[in-house]
Amino acid sequence: MRFHRRALNVLSARLDRIFRVGVEDMKKAIQDKEGLVEAVLHVATETLRLAKKIVGKTFPTKSLTVFAHSQSEYELLVRILEDMGKPHNYNNGPRLELYEPIKVGDNRITHLRIRKPDSERPQVGCSDFETDYESFKNDYLSNHPDNLRLIKRPEYEMIEFYDPGFDVLAYVVSG
Questions:
Q1: Residue 174, H or E segment
Q2: Each residue's pLDDT expressed in tens, for the chain with a length of 175 residues
Q3: How big is the CA angle at 50 (ends 133 and 96), to the nearest 5 degrees?
Q4: What superkingdom does the record give (predicted)?
């Protein structure tokens, strides 16, 4: 009986935490262009920290994706994005070449995508690092199996940087 009560208390505390985090996340939904730019700055900065933590160095980036977490947020972000650049391509959401690149440290974000809501992507966003894919794969992939994952697609491969302590992802993409 004592074990069950303790287990129920632990479960109740976890559910409370999950609910609070969910409510806080709803408050963090991007509402305007300034919020979108803040998200871009956050993703760019955090992906550099992620790379530094995993492989000990950073890489240039010029392409970044912000993840929408609901259909209404996605629709709003697409409308905001339309005024920021010209269409470049479409993959899981529109990608634009920005009229005015967003400067983050030594990087200039020139391409921005809004990703459709995906329950598998709770992060704020991701960036694509600019580096030689084959060299990166040979030098780092097998040395960091806990934080680098090879993803194979029919047309290309990519290596994903991930760490549960970060709210961003990053990629090195082939070709």
A1: none
A2: 444 444 444 444 443 433 334 334 434 678 999 999 999 999 999 999 999 999 999 999 999 999 999 999 999 999 999 999 998 877 778 899 999 999 999 999 999 999 999 999 999 999 999 999 999 999 999 999 999 999 999 999 999 999 999 999 999 999 8
A3: 65
A4: Bacteria
Q: Give the residue among 39, 54, 56 at the shortest CA–CA distance from 127.
A: 39
CA 81 from chain center: how many Å? 17
Residues in Cβ contact with 76 at an 8 Å cutoff, skipping those fewer than 6 apart: 30, 31
* Separation of alpha carbons 67 and 125, rounded Å: 5
